[in-house]
């Protein structure tokens, strides 16, 4: 998805939050549901970049992240679009 976004002339930043693989292994941070605590520092950083339009910062999350994105947006009001692609709600229903 990031490549497609870049090809359309937009910027992309990727990151892992607490509980995700690299953060868990290297920093021993467990999962937190307060995803706004993860997203807000990323937005703060983006606002230091001259190439970033502060009115056009969006959030795109997949799977469980797609369930956390709306929560982050409820607290982080500097996000413009939020794309939440949720995961499987009930695993038994797809087996």
Automatic annotation (TrEMBL):
Cited InterPro entries: AB_hydrolase_fold
Record's protein name: Peptidase S9 prolyl oligopeptidase catalytic domain-containing protein
Organism: Fusarium oxysporum f. sp. raphani 54005
